[in-house]
Amino acid sequence: MQTRTYTWPLLAGLLLAGLLLAGLFRANGGNQLYQQQFYVFGTLVDISIWGLAEQQASEAVNAIANDFQTKHRNWHAWHSSPLTDLNQAIATGQTRTVQETSLLPMLKQAKQLSHQSDGFFNPAIGQLIGLWGFHTDDFSDNLPLPSPDKIAELVALAPSMDDIKINGNRISSRNRAVQLDFGAFAKGYAVDLAIEKLRQLGVQNAIINAGGNLKAIGKKGEKPWLIGIRHPSGKGVLAACSVSGEESIITSGNYERFREYQGVHYSHIIDPRNGMPTQGLTSVTVIDSSGARADAASTALTVAGLQDWHRIAQQMGVKYVMLVDEAGTVYMNPAMAARVQFLPEKLPNIVVSEPL
Ligand code: AMP
Ligand code: MG
Fold this sequence. Notes:
Blueprint: E1 2-5, E2 24-28, E3 31-40, E4 43-50, H1 54-74, H2 82-91, E5 96-97, H3 103-116, H4 126-131, H5 148-157, E6 164-167, E7 170-173, H6 186-200, E8 206-210, E9 213-217, E10 225-230, E11 237-243, E12 247-253, E13 257-261, E14 264-267, E15 270-271, E16 276-277, E17 281-288, H7 291-316, E18 320-325, E19 330-332, H8 334-337, E20 341-342, E21 350-352
């Protein structure tokens, strides 16, 4: 199986008003934009802060970068980490006391969101994700396709977040096939925490964009932050949308991490019902006040597909959804359609759904 990963220069997928230089600080009519990028969670993280002295902005960004590195180590799904320790305990039927404090609230939130999504967002399917070859840093390898028997075996074991029992900080699972992988959720969850921390550090206007998992607070001076939603081809921008207050815009796309075998494209998002990579949608964007919910929902709605996305979005309580199918048709609920702007010369075929 051939593998490929895209690290587009504009990886964020969400272009931030044309500002792409690391550590950029500009005086602009008495206001300042400080911008810095760093690499963590296997992706480029881009932070923009408006209206703060350079040193204070730089210190805030460094604090977030340190936090993200720690989280990356603690939540890693295939390098040795507190999460892999927990997975090992689950696989051997043991109860584990979680020492790493951020894991516990994360687990609780993931359990709830998974339940609301009818298990389409299912961070318990780490074994299936690994089987499809996504537990790797090296996408240059040539793997065989997983055997249908092995896929069927893992699907039959039906690992679910409902299997996880939390008692204080003691975690166990009634199903040993559960293997936690927070790849669909960790970045959205992390941007929530990072924005909270930025506020504590006196930042009122900022965007944190972790590879298409973005959260914004405040404004860019007098204007709202303007966000570009990446085109599903991975190239350029599909639409623009302004954000106000505290909002997350999160896109799940199958252009960033995927495998290819004999010319067939296999998405990194796995349908827990059949153990197969999803087909049909090339990208799903969700806007929500919670980055964690938007991230979980973007993955869940990719699995749900055109048939079930509306129901799952309602169950998860998200209010703004945009989906793009393989033909490039854009599906949105009316509230989302009222917010996004497309370039007139690149207007896609648009289908507006019933309200959410
Ligand atoms: P995202 O880009 O947020 O959609 O996350 C995709 C990542 O989540 C994959 O690389 C896997 O690590 C993991 N994943 C794949 N399928 C699922 C699923 N159905 N539920 C939860 N996590 C998943
Ligand atoms: Mg996601």
